[in-house]
């Protein structure tokens, strides 16, 4: 596509400074009953360099469809997207972009070492000592010991680790991650979150989906909530933090639920906290804990 053919050319020029920008992107599918399903409905968003954008929404909301468009797997019906100012219709835009798909498919006759080696070549990435560089990333993902084993013998978690090493080894200018933590055990999840935070600290940009909202809250600077193909940016921006208060006592507390014997829990906003705790104390309750509620979960 030429610049002149793009009706949003002026906006496009402004987007040269963003890691990712999406402008009124739409995609529909034909349904089995000859109908049309609008999977992505005129969505627009921006992810600045060095920013992590969390892209969340329920099953079937349009997340993977958006990611497939960005990664060139499918074409949009209309709209535009740019990676560091390059139109995604140009495959060059994806040079230097690390991608972890949902359920990564890796050629199972290859080894992690082969896969990272091919990936470096495809992206024109030329580390000084390629073998050492590859082993560094396999060590970071804790799969160095199986670097020469074929993927076909791997568990889901090991395959996922290989896909993440593959995305990171090119020193990516942008990471596009579709459920990157799925299939990982708790230690693996913690390690990968640490790696992603390190990548962020070094100025990396991330566009990611996750059903684990806690992970998004840990990593994302901005959040987009998509439902039925429609996107809301930072849906909780003006909401107050809510808190979960747990107390122990015999008497019932108004608004609280008894979750086990003599244990009472209630979600409350910050403003109401002191009154509620004072009320609980009057009724001889002991405060057990106050924890921040996962605010994003309230969107679902
Ligand atoms: N190839 C396809 N053909 C027809 N419909 C499709 C196709 N791919 C996705 N859809 C439909 O488009 C909508 C969006 O699907 P998509 O996979 O983008 O959702 P998602 O947000 O990634 O969901 P999940 O969280 O379950 O992965 C859904 O209604 C889905 O059934």
Automatic annotation (TrEMBL):
CDD domains in UniProt: ABC_DR_subfamily_A
InterPro entries: AAA+_ATPase, ABC_transporter-like_ATP-bd, ABC_Transporter_VariousFunc, P-loop_NTPase
Domain ABC transporter: 20-253
Pfam families recorded: ABC_tran
Entry-linked SUPFAM superfamilies: P-loop containing nucleoside triphosphate hydrolases (SSF52540)
Key words of the record: ATP-binding, Cell membrane, Membrane, Nucleotide-binding, Transport
Gene Ontology molecular function, alphabetical: ATP binding; ATP hydrolysis activity
This protein's name: ABC transporter ATP-binding protein
